Amino acid sequence: MPQKHNITMLGTGLIGLFYTMTLHGQRGRDRVSCVYSRDADRAQTFARKWGIKHAVTDMEEAVKHTSSDVVIIGLPNHLHEEAVRLCAEANKAVLCTKPLARTAAEAKRILDIVELSGIFAGYLEDLVYTPKTLKALESVRRGALGEILWTRSRETHSGPHSSWFWDVEQAGGGAIVDLGCHCIEIIRNFVGKDIRPVEVSCWADTLVHPIKAEDNGIALIRFENGAVGQFEVSWTFRGGMDLRDEVAGTEGTIWLNHFLRTGFEMFSSGAGGYVAEKAEQESGWLFPVGDEVHELGYTDMFTDMFNAMDEGREPMETVYDGYVVNAVIDACYRSAKSRKWEPVALEDWRGRTGVERIRGLKEMVDGLELVKRERLPNGEVKLILKDPSTGEVTQRVVEDD
Questions:
Q1: How is the chain split into domains, by residue range?
Q2: pLDDT tens digits, one per residue of 12-26
Q3: DSSP readout, 28-69?
Q4: Strands 6-10 and 70-73, bridge-based pairing
Q5: Percent of the chain with pLDDT over 70
Q6: DSSP E strand stretches across 277-367
Q7: Label partner for 304 (CA 20 to 30 A): which of 259, 362, 378, 391?
Q8: Which of 12-16, 77-81, 240-244, 268-272 has the lowest mean pLDDT?
């Protein structure tokens, strides 16, 4: 039976705000009982706004606070490992925001801490829980697209909201670690999380901002079965936040647009205020988002996390998934530096091994392999055929098929 959980929220930035909005919205049973911020005024202000009883400025005190049984980490990347260690010491369930860590080595230490302690842990990768993504993943599981060949994920906007994102030491990188972590896990969900990512080819550069980290990146990820993932990330895109995915299979295609152009368009002289996350203007033609936390996946994400906790099962997104994502990101940075394909170094791989390559079409016509079937404007059907013994490719037109 579902239980009521009391939560310590570590962090009062945008992600802590979104998480709390989700948990306290729609008459939710799970509530934040303690909030942590390094800044006392910020902690108190956040607590008053959301009706949170306890506001503290010491992270260990917050994690071990007697009012809570679950800790949610919404902190800068360099603080995740310390926070998880404190949760393990307190024997409390922990849910960690994305990315899990700055590097795969750091992520592996977090994974080891969680598993050695036996605490429940989840990886808060919200964009695999968007309503459209969940529907698309169900279609893929039912076989609507056949074998998945290629998945493209794009997240671009004008840059993060807090200073620490722009500091490579605190964040671990730039747009790739910030946005690419979303894209990689979206790609893994569509290709199959049990299919090993083998190697990466990546371009990254700092084109606009005066920072050490990259503000743009593009990568190709090759999987063991031959499928390819592609991501595009940017901190220099103007016009809002662009979240799009494309999935191509042997039997179908899916296009998803999650945020920038969702069918809600509005013109305003500028009197309405906030429009949507990363929106750059408040006047003219605008593209609002109906229920932002729901459209970004937070609602279904927390439902899955707390249901998994209550049911004694793993959530859809685990800390192990976060580790795999960090390993792919590491390969991206190595490839961007070497300008070569670089292997994805996974010290701990728990998926399938020896996976067969995608088989594709295997239809025969009169002893010849069918390459393509196409209906012509005159109603006839053209077949492109290959002789399996000689490799010769021919075509044949038939009246009907």
A1: 6-125, 128-252+290-343, 364-398
A2: 999 999 999 999 987
A3: -S-EEEEEE-SSHHHHHHHHHHHT-SEEES-HHHHHT-TT-S
A4: parallel
A5: 99
A6: 284-286, 342-343, 364-365
A7: 259
A8: 268-272
Which residues are CB-neighbours of 27 under 8 A, at least 6 positions away? none
What is the spatial distance between Cα 233 and Cα 172, in angstroms, rounded to a whole number?
16
CATH T-level fold of 6-125: Rossmann fold (3.40.50)
Give the residue among 60, 2, 51, 55 at the shortest CA–CA distance from 31. Answer: 51
pLDDT value of position 1? 64
Nearest to 127 by CA among 118, 117, 137: 137
Q: What is the pTM of this model?
A: 0.94
Residue type, 271: A
230 vs 361: CA distance, rounded Å:
23
What DSSP line would sit under 93-137, residue for residue? Answer: EEEEESSS-SSHHHHHHHHHHHHHHT--EEEE-GGGSSHHHHHHH
Tell me which DSSP letter residue 178 carries: I
Which of 1.20.120.530, 3.30.300.30, 1.10.730.10, 3.30.360.10 is the CATH number of 128-252+290-343? 3.30.360.10
Burial class (CB in 10 A: 0-12, 13-18, 19+), 39: exposed
Share of the chain above pLDDT 90, in %: 86
Instruction: Dump pLDDT digits (tens) for 31-52.
Output: 999 999 999 999 999 999 999 9
CA separation for the pair 115, 82 (Å, rounded):
15
Helix (H) or strand (E) holding 175: helix 175-175
Burial class, 22, CB count within 10 angstroms (exposed 0-12 / middle 13-18 / buried 19+): buried
